[in-house]
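The pair is set out directly below:
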Amino acid sequence: MNDIRISALEIAAIYTDRDALTALHDTAPVARELERLGYQRIWYSEHHHFAPVGTFPPAVVIAHAAAATSTIRLGSGGVLAPNHSPLSVAEEFGTLSALHPDRIDLGIGRGPGTLDEATARALRRGADPASDEDYRRDVAAILSFLAEQVAPNPLPAPWLLVSSPAGADLAGSLGLPIAFAHHIRPGNTLASVERYRSAFTPSRWCEKPQVTLSVHTVCAETEEVATWHAGPYDLFQDRVFKGVSGTLPFPAPSEAAAHLFTDEERQTLAAYKEQQAVGTPDIVVPRLRKLADETGAEELMLVTIVHDFHARLHSHKLVKENLASWAG
């Protein structure tokens, strides 16, 4: 556990008192600080017309962060295959990898990145929503174009973003490493990782199973401070449970703190947070350790959605330092 890799998933979080432009401008300084702390990689998510998250194409943000750093790996968490031509994806990430050798990851995802059907159709130029078979074909085509070296070597490292046993089975059959969305569907984690390992077939991309877990993580010196900073995400998650997560930006921390949950909402949220990592280092580190031990994950990708820029970086620092010093 002491040498487990730690990474971060970054989104362009939009709050009621802060727009997407600030989040975009934070990209480079966050990347530089996580590089200094020794994080393995940063991935950037793809969203469209989704009120809590800005629309920043991962490839563009990766290029910006790569120009501001020198060693940390950067990638997509993920590029959503239904929205793009497979050849274009291969060319874009092949070019990024040629410009920033051995630093670029191509995380491929299944969803449209929006809850708005009109936006999804616009992204697909009017086509119907992608089926599972469409997705499989798109992933295979991206890998094929990469293998044909549509851009100069070295190639980016392909990953598959997974949130279900079916996705894990596909990743295993293709011999790809997986990034499992534990922060989205924690109930699927163990079954999916087991399915992935049993289905895994070595490939040119990956010789043995490789698992990264994304975990909602907020760490501070006191539980009160951690709870304050996690508050906006708590309210967002409550909206996820109700199916209305895309309708409003993240609330400011003061708004979240003033929100009154019902007993049922608190219980549902508490059950979710028990499977994540929010609190002091004495709470966060054992939970991360337990997840890594239960799943055999080689890497944990922290999803730290915190309103205050410095508090977000401090959370990353506390996790990294305390994991490194954990004696078990």
